[in-house]
Structure formats: C-alpha cells, structure tokens
Design brief:
By secondary structure, this protein is an alpha+beta fold. The protein has 13 helices and ten strands. The structure holds adenosine-5'-triphosphate and magnesium ion.
Length: about 400
C-alpha cells in the first residue's frame, strides 16, 4: 500500500482536495484511519496512555512492527487540512536525539491524528515528580544527562531550526524518556495547530502556571526567552525532585521557584537538592544547576541566557561564576491574586490570560493558587510575537 492509498475510500471531491494538498507535502508519512484503528485495537481504552490538552493518546503497534504513540487531536483543535499538513511538514523535518520523532499523520476526513515514536518510560512528570508510580531511580548522573539533553533539544529548536521554533508549553509532562532514560522533548511545533479562538495552552492551570514566564502569562509575549524561563523551572524540578508547586508544604515553601530564590539569598541552596539522592551527588554541580535555573528565570528577558549558553553552562564550557543572579520574575509579583485585583504596575496590554486567571481565582479559597484545586481551563493569547531577544 502506498502512502496515499487511504484516498481510495474517499469521495471524488475529497480525493481531489487531499491529492492537491498532499502532492505539495514531501517526507511526511500518511496513515489511513483504518490502519491506526487496527494499530490501537479500535482505540481501545486499554491502549490509552493518557490525555492532554490536545486529546487522548494511545499506544499502538504499527504494521511495520514499530510501537507508536498516537495523539488524536480533539475536534476543537481541528484545522483545515492544508494548515494541518503545513505544520506537520515542519515537524516531520526535524530530527534530534532529544526531540520526539514524528512518524507521520492521518488527515482523513475530519480526523487529525499525529503518530509519534513511542517512548517506553513515559514522562518526567510521571516518573520523577510522582504523578505515577515509578521504580526508576534517578541518580545524579542520570539527572545531569536529562538536564543537558533537554537543554540541547531546546537549543536546537531555538537556534538551529529555521525559522526557529518556540515550544510555549515546556513542562515535565512534555519531557518523555526512552528505554535508556534519554530525554525527548514532545509537543514542539504544536502551538500553531490550535485556532486562536480555542486553546493554545490548555491544561490544569495550577500545574502549568508555575512554568510560565510573567511576560508570557500577563501579556502573552512569547519569545525564546519565555521558553528559557520555563526550562529554568524544569531544571530546578529535576535537581530537587519537586514539582513547581506543592500544596502539602507550608505556605512559604509551596512555590519552588520562590523557595529556590529564598535559599539562594541565604546561601543554603544545598538544602533543596533531592533527598532521594541520599547525598550521592556532586554538591557543587547540583548547586550550579540550581543557579542556572535561577539565571534562566530572571525577570529581565535580556538577562536570561540563550539555550545554547545554558548547554555550555551545564557542561562547564562556560563558567557562571561571573554571572550576577537577579530575582526571578514571579507571576505573584504582577498581581495580587488574593485580592483579585491588578497591581498598580499592571501593564496596559494585559490580555485574556489576566482575565482568565482573575476569573479562575474567584473559585479559589483565600489562599489563592494554594488551594490545591486543579481546574481544566482554556487560555487564549492573541498577541504572539518573538522579538528575538
Ligand atoms: N511519544 C509518546 N510516547 C509515550 N507516551 C507518550 C507519548 N506522547 C505522549 N505520551 C503520554 O501521553 C500522555 C498525554 O500526553 P499529552 O501530550 O497529550 O498531554 P500532556 O503532556 O499531559 O499535556 P499537554 O496536552 O498540555 O501537553 C502523557 O502521560 C504522556 O506521557
Ligand atoms: Mg504533552
């Protein structure tokens, strides 16, 4: 069967349209809906791995014997076939050791399905941050490899792919691990698949807000440096083994980034390093990684390093000794969540997200985001731009 054989079961006008569109698309594997149905045993719940903002994800066995993760984009995120395939082509062309490989897609009728390489060890959120049960021990060497690998993947997307790709949703659940615990970044290039009136980051707000750079959260200002901020939060999570927010801790310790800054100021960063390492780690290097996390999350975009510089800092090629670390940008500094009022310094161009957060916090208890509620929500940003800072 050739790549386009699924066209044969379509109406003539649909065949024409798909033929016209796909003839301009090279290097993309097309799967028939039927083939994917067989591969997932009719999208059996047994094969469902999880569900994110885009829709459900299934484990599948393809005809060639390869295991795949099949992401079925929900109806809300549907684009026209042309736009969809244009995005797919961009993602298909990208290959890097630290990026999840897209095998291909299905765009039959109203179906929009992505077929990815299957990663055996699920995500960092699942294995390291305790959302699931995992027997994997993340020793210091493994963590170093994960932090560096993820940074390399982002440096590639930001600086070597042309036009560069901003991820926009960096978080532990988007870092997948293969059999050897090599990290692979997932969901890059997907942001544009979501129409402006729908979601661009659809997620549990309380879980994701901790990764968002303030300028992104407040003004929708998307740049490579907003990705760098999110990477910084992730880096601190990997070293500490803690989620960016933990409601079981005393209030002053719940927000990981704030806590990291507090301990940095007291010269006590060591206290944050994951106790499950049982002291078996390079203290100097672990503290350096935490400082790099702080450098990445500084309020000023210009002060945040580029991802290729982050790689050099992690590997020791560039020293961080001369770097002055300034206070991280914290969303809580931009808005008084408890009073649900914008701060006096609130920028004029505050967008939907501010309204969104304000309206969501109405539902929270008096401790605001510390209520522990998880809220499925939709944010819409209209002003997306990269000033290439
Ligand atoms: N290529 C893959 N291999 C193995 N598991 C995967 C793969 N892609 C996704 N998953 C798993 O499927 C689940 C859902 O992933 P999905 O990306 O849809 O949601 P998410 O990352 O939790 O949230 P978001 O939609 O905001 O990215 C996650 O548990 C993830 O670990
Ligand atoms: Mg994901």
């Amino acid at each position: 069967m050739n790549c386009f054989s699924f066209l044969s079961c379509k109406q003539p006008h649909q065949v024409d349209e798909l033929n016209e569109v796909t003839s301009g698309i090279q290097g993309v594997n097309f799967y028939s809906y039927k083939e994917l149905r067989v591969a997932t045993d009719d999208f059996s719940p047994v094969n469902k791995i999880g569900e994110g903002g885009f829709g459900p994800v299934y484990k599948a066995k393809l005809k060639n014997g390869n295991m795949a993760a099949i992401k079925v984009l929900s109806a809300k995120s549907h684009q026209g076939v042309r736009e969809f395939l244009t995005e797919i082509q961009v993602i298909s062309d990208i290959e890097h050791e630290n990026l999840v490989k897209l095998y291909g897609c299905c765009a039959e009728g109203s179906h929009r399905i992505l077929v990815y390489n299957y990663l055996e060890n699920n995500s960092l959120a699942h294995c390291l941050l305790g959302e699931g049960h995992s027997s994997i021990q993340f020793n210091w060497g493994t963590r170093r490899r994960i932090c560096t690998g993820v940074a390399r993947g982002f440096a590639y997307l930001h600086e070597e792919v042309s036009p560069h790709i901003i991820h926009r949703d960096i978080k532990a659940s988007n870092i997948l691990l293969d059999r050897d615990l090599t990290p692979k970044i997932s969901d890059f290039g997907l942001a544009k698949m979501i129409p402006p009136e729908a979601t661009h980051v659809s997620t549990r707000v309380a879980g994701t807000i901790g990764y968002l750079a303030p300028e992104y959260a407040i003004r929708g200002q998307v740049t490579r440096k907003s990705d760098v901020y999110s990477y910084g939060v992730l880096l601190i999570e990997i070293v500490t083994g803690r989620s960016n927010r933990n409601t079981r801790l005393p209030p002053e310790e719940q927000f990981l980034l704030e806590r990291t800054w507090q301990l940095y100021e007291k010269n006590e960063l060591e206290a944050l390093i994951d106790t499950s390492l049982n002291g078996d780690f390079d203290i100097e290097e672990a503290c350096k990684f935490l400082k790099i996390g702080l450098l990445c999350t500084q309020d000023s975009l210009k002060l945040r390093p580029s991802m290729s510089t982050v790689v050099k800092m992690l590997t020791g090629e560039t020293s961080i000794n001369g770097s002055n670390i300034t206070k991280p940008g914290l969303i809580s500094d931009f808005m008084d969540i408890n009073n649900k009022k914008p701060p006096k310094t609130k920028p004029d161009e505050v967008n939907d997200l501010y309204n969104f957060i304000s309206s969501e916090t109405e539902n929270f208890d008096s401790s605001g985001l510390t209520s522990g509620q998880t809220t499925q929500a939709t944010m819409t940003f209209t002003s997306l731009y990269d000033r290439s800072i």
